[in-house]
């Protein structure tokens, strides 16, 4: 057994050690508090916003998977063919603007559009949906250009025939 | 205010020697009380040291409403119970039993001045923990039922019952001679 003097020294040693530990823990808490607050802010404010976006896209995907109708694609209901040279160009009888729109989209989608300069403009095709202009193309010789861009697709024989079927000179 | 509390007040006011007075007055009694639960003098001594260190670490925790002895015994009891609980999980490899017994006797002689108390103390070891602690506090530490109840976190009635049943058990253990001791 220890003497009272030894016990006294041990009591003070343990006491001071405990006080040191408490001070250290308090210091750590003070240092960690800003990090904790920042983490809470990130988790509570920033991530939920990202989560909402994710949820929206996930919900749309889910709706598609479930066969729920999403917003319908814009349907072209009118096309104006503006003649720039001689000749009168219109849609053939019985043809609809949407058919021409589809054909032109096919042509543009089939080829990789290459950059080009349109010098001579034969005619311009402008598509409308509910009175609002949605797209416009320029036909120049064997080129079909997307207006207000530098891209154009080359019209091959097949493409020209498809156009001829819809457009009446 | 009891003498322990007066000394502690002096210690809080900056008199370091006052703590020595508290140690002299209460340390061995606390070790002896803790040993009633722990049954290992060396472990009891460590627990008592840890209990006393609380007076240094948490200087404002003691509110001077109970005696310092009661306060220390309350902490000591809870630490002792923690130790006993832990010991059930971990097997401690302590000192040899003979050495432990020797130290136990030294402590007993220091605390228990009369032969009567020594005989009673030996018989106490055969009683259950709570009964042993209640008898120890009232008969060996001369505490009131109220203080013993506070330390053991029981009501005065429960302490009364523990003492009644404890005395009954002791009479059986000590036989006819025991009648005279109680």
Explain what the structure shows.
The complex is a heterodimer of chains A (169) and B (182). With 169 residues, chain A is α+β, with helices and mostly antiparallel strands. Helices cover 51% and strands 21% of the residues of chain A. Chain A contains 3 helices and 8 strands; from the N terminus they run αββαβββββαβ. Chain A has helices at 4-65, 97-110, 157-166; strands at residues 78-83, 90-91, 114-115, 123-129, 132-140, 143-146, 151-154, 167-168. In chain A, the strands form 2 sheets. Chain A has a 6-stranded antiparallel beta sheet with strand order 1-4-5-6-7-3, with helices on one face. A two-stranded antiparallel sheet of chain A has the order 2-8. Chain A is rod-shaped. Chain B has 182 residues and is mainly alpha-helical. Chain B contains 9 helices and no strands. Chain B has helices at residues 3-12, 17-38, 41-57, 68-89, 97-111, 115-124, 129-140, 145-152, 156-181. Chain B starts with a helix and ends with a helix. The chains are: A alpha+beta (169), B mainly alpha (182).
Any chance you could write out the topology, listing elements then pairs?
The complex is a heterodimer of chains A (169) and B (182).
Chain A: H1 4-65, E1 78-83, E2 90-91, H2 97-110, E3 114-115, E4 123-129, E5 132-140, E6 143-146, E7 151-154, H3 157-166, E8 167-168
Antiparallel strand pairs in A: 1-4, 2-8, 3-7, 4-5, 5-6, 6-7
Helix pairs in contact in A: 2-3
Chain B: H1 3-12, H2 17-38, H3 41-57, H4 68-89, H5 97-111, H6 115-124, H7 129-140, H8 145-152, H9 156-181
Helix pairs in contact in B: 1-2, 2-3, 2-4, 3-4, 4-8, 6-9, 7-8, 7-9, 8-9
């Amino acid at each position: 057994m220890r003497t009272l003097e030894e016990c006294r020294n041990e009591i003070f040693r343990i006491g001071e050690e405990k006080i040191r530990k408490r001070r250290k823990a308090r210091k750590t808490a003070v240092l960690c508090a800003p990090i904790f607050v920042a983490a809470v802010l990130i988790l509570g404010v920033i991530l939920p916003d990202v989560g909402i976006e994710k949820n929206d896209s996930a919900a749309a995907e889910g709706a598609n998977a479930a066969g729920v109708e999403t917003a319908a694609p814009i349907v072209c209901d009118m096309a104006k063919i503006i003649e720039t040279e001689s000749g009168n160009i219109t849609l053939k009888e019985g043809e609809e603007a949407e058919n021409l729109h589809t054909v032109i989209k096919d042509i543009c989608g089939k080829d990789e559009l290459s950059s080009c300069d349109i010098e001579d403009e034969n005619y311009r095709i402008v598509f409308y949906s509910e009175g609002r202009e949605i797209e416009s193309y320029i036909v120049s010789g064997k080129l079909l250009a997307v207006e207000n861009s530098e891209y154009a697709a080359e019209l091959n024989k097949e493409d020209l025939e498809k156009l001829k079927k819809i457009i009446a000179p | 205010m009891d003498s322990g509390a007066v000394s502690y007040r002096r210690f809080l006011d900056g008199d370091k020697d006052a703590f020595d007075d508290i140690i002299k007055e209460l340390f061995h009694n606390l070790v002896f009380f803790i040993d009633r639960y722990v049954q290992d003098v060396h472990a009891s001594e460590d627990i008592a040291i840890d209990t006393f260190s609380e007076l240094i670490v948490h200087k404002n925790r003691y509110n001077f409403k109970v005696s310092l002895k009661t306060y220390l015994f309350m902490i000591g009891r809870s630490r002792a119970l923690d130790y006993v609980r832990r010991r059930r999980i971990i097997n401690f490899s302590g000192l040899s039993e003979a050495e432990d017994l020797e130290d136990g006797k030294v402590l007993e002689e220091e605390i228990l001045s009369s032969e009567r108390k020594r005989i009673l103390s030996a018989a106490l070891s055969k009683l259950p923990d709570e009964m042993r602690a209640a008898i120890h506090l009232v008969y060996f530490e001369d505490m009131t039922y109220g203080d013993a109840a506070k330390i053991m976190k029981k009501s005065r009635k429960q302490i009364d019952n523990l003492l009644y049943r404890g005395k009954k058990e002791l009479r059986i253990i000590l036989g006819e001679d025991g009648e005279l001791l109680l």
